[in-house]
Amino acid sequence: MVFGLLISLLAGAFLSVQNIFNSKVNERAGSWLTTTLVLGMGFLASLIFGFIFEGKNLFDLQHMKPWFWFSGLIGIGVVMCLVNGMRLLGPTFSISIVLTSQLGFALLWDSLGWFGLDQVPFTSKKLIGVIIIVAGILVFKFGGSKQGILKRATSSGNDVNNKKHGSVL
């Protein structure tokens, strides 16, 4: 279990660095080229490391359901949504929403037993956990100082400063 926790923490660190790098590439290359570079380099590296570590067993895919082959296509949506979400919302807020969405949908898929998962009973404790995480994100994003809250609450979007900078708020 400790090893599982450690590699999960490492995966989170890798994802956060990768998403920042992806957003920097996206600033120069655009979403489609970023997605092509990310998935193309990932494919090549995975193929090379796969041959090194698994050899001829790399392509032994017996008894795999056909729809699981489309996982790479889902990866296109993941990269596109992440780079654009980070561009629009910033890295921390975007990733917090992504992780909460991932947790919520994982809970749904587990509870329904979809995609070949063993069905796990849905409990109110799990729902409360997701709600607490969502509340934490809201506090993180909107729970600034009283002055910042008052400024957002009283801003009409019609003052000269906002028009000058094209701001909606």
Give the helices and strands, then pairings:
Elements: H1 2-29, H2 31-54, H3 71-89, H4 91-112, H5 124-142, H6 146-154, H7 160-165
Any key phrases for this structure?
single chain, 169 residues, mainly alpha, 7 helices, 75% helix, disordered C terminus
Description of the structure:
This protein has 169 residues and is mainly alpha-helical. The chain is built from 7 helices and no strands. The longest helix is centred in the N-terminal third of the chain and has 28 residues, at 2-29. It is globular. 7% of the residues are buried. Mean pLDDT is 82; it is low at 156-169.
What is the count of β-strands? 0
Return residue spans where pLDDT drops below 50 for at least 5 consecutive residues.
Answer: 156-169
| Biggest beta-sheet profile | none
Structural class label? mainly alpha
Instruction: Give the helix proportion (percent range).
Output: over 70%
N-end to C-end Cα span: 47 Å
Choose one word for the global shape: globular
Radius of gyration: 21 Å
How do the SSEs run, as a string of H and E?
Answer: HHHHHHH
Q: Residue-averaged pLDDT, rounded?
A: 82
